Amino acid sequence: MTTAPVDPMIGRLIDGRYQVRSRIARGGMATVYLATDLRLERRVAIKIMHGHLADDNTFKTRFVQEARSAARLAHPNVVNVFDQGQDSDMAYLVMEYLPGITLRDLLKDYKRLTPEQTTDIMDAVLAGLAAAHKAGIVHRDLKPENVLLADDGRIKLGDFGLARAASANTATGQALLGTIAYLSPELVTRGVADARSDIYAVGIMMYEMLTGEQPYVGEAPMAIAYQHANDQVPMPSSKNPTVPAELDELVLWATTRDPEGRPRDAKEMLDRLREVEPAIRGGFAGPVNATMVLSSMPAQATPTAATTVLGVAGTRGVATAPETPPLSDADGGGPDAAALTTAAARRRRRGYWILALVLLLTGLAAGTGWYFGSGPGSYAQVPATSGMSVEEARAELEGAGLTVAQAERNDPVVPAGSVSGTDPAEGEQVNRGSEVTLYVSTGPAIIPVPQVTGLPEADARAQLAAFAVAEAPVEQFSGDVESGSVIAVLDADGAPAPEQYAEQGELTLVVSVGRVPPVEGLPAGEAETRLVDAGLTVTYNDPVFDAEVPADHVKTADWTEDPMVPGSTVVLTVSKGPDLVAIPDVVGKNWEDAGAELRDAGFVVDYNAAVDIAPSLFVVSKTTPAAGETALRGSSVSVNFAGF
């Protein structure tokens, strides 16, 4: 007989605060455990990233993103996130613990749900999703496994592990993420997702809830993805004729292949669902409602003469017809007066007991209603207080019937002195009179800024996850830092970031785009193309003669800025080649005139005799190079004289 291996996490104390009790579930990126928060003495769910992913910055960034995405939401239909951190090499996320089942478990048990049940669940899912969309968050992994049905009846949306801030088109950046059965066509074909992609997944979930099966099946994931990209989801009534037309239309609207044809966000779809809900509940003639409550006691039959027992001896517990009462000899056939009097007295006593019991039950019901409705046993919802002053928040909580304890904590968003939140969080249901901790912000925490110079941009962003790093980096040319790596980090004022900075403070990365392309010696056209392709602007100086650089080639490339950034200007100086001049014809001229003419032409004159002895005797006989030949301006020309 073999025993299952013991999970080493069971019993471990995480971060000196969370005592792990048991394992709840295991996923592809993390394992979820039931734990006790020893500081606040409450049960929580703690999600711990798998050890083999701890060194992968991409997964770690996605794990931290889940915490931030979910923490930005405060809604009764979204699982609350309480804390996030790292203990040794373990990244963890602390969430609200909801004992219960998932929508997937419910579908496994019941196969398909009634239209009324589907409407109830989708109302809660869309309400939570609408809060996410309003906060600018796209879930990107909606499926029945992520819809939690608590034992107390609450329905919540969880697992924001793939969530990302929404833009006009939020690209996945890598392979397709999310479960293939719920992927929208645009995710399959273009790898982009927005709020309408979540709506598509909601439509697929509704189809599955109403029919008991997914619209597309296949042996390989790509086969299912192909159907999502090319086919229209059928109406649920084609599989289940009892589905109302209103839900058919809602599913078709949500699963339209063109995103422009779908609801723009969950709020629009929720409004439509609530519009048609009365028709779904009132006009649907389906099977008997499974939640109908019937009395546990059978209706008492109306008493008749044949069933009334007036205490006949020897027949206890048996309903039989009584014997006809004996007739009196005195009245010649009337009923026995003593028997009738005894029966009437018995009926009166039984009526008093019934009246007393009814009055007692009525009193108990009224007391119970008061106790749980407005008395100590009633529930109160924690009101929203974030951003209020302490006085306003305290008055709001006490007005809801709660007692208030005050504490402080850092908050990167809420200004110091204002309320940053409560524990339990806003929207939660608690017993009236319960104590709620009111957190007053002390402003953002001042934390060290990691040294990321020289790291690839993605790695630098992962290390700076505690700060608000600008999406668009400053690009700069560098001959020392390779392209795509960080040259520097700037603070909100554009100065180099200090060693310590406010949590969630604004930072900007300066990222290298490589060196400015070297173009000296290249043909001018090719040089300009290389510089323009690198994002630079090109202007020209006047061309110059150069004996060493061929004509129409770049002699020099001068920068106008330091450092150079995309858009900066490079000034090119192009060579005209060597400066060649024709030798003038000075044969037969005296040495003075010949020398002056050669010097005027740009040459240096070299005589082969001492011309200062008798100037008039020296007549030029030839020059080297000879007259008519060309030579570089500034070069030497030898002059020969007759007789020498």
TrEMBL record:
UniProt keyword Membrane, yes or no: yes
Catalysed reaction, written as an equation: L-seryl-[protein] + ATP = O-phospho-L-seryl-[protein] + ADP + H(+); L-threonyl-[protein] + ATP = O-phospho-L-threonyl-[protein] + ADP + H(+)
Keyword field contains tRNA processing: no
Annotated ranges, domain PASTA: 375-442, 577-643
SMART domains with a match to the protein in the record: PASTA, S_TKc
Entry keyword set: ATP-binding, Kinase, Membrane, Nucleotide-binding, Serine/threonine-protein kinase, Transferase, Transmembrane, Transmembrane helix
Protein name per Swiss-Prot or TrEMBL: non-specific serine/threonine protein kinase
Encoding gene (name): pknB_2
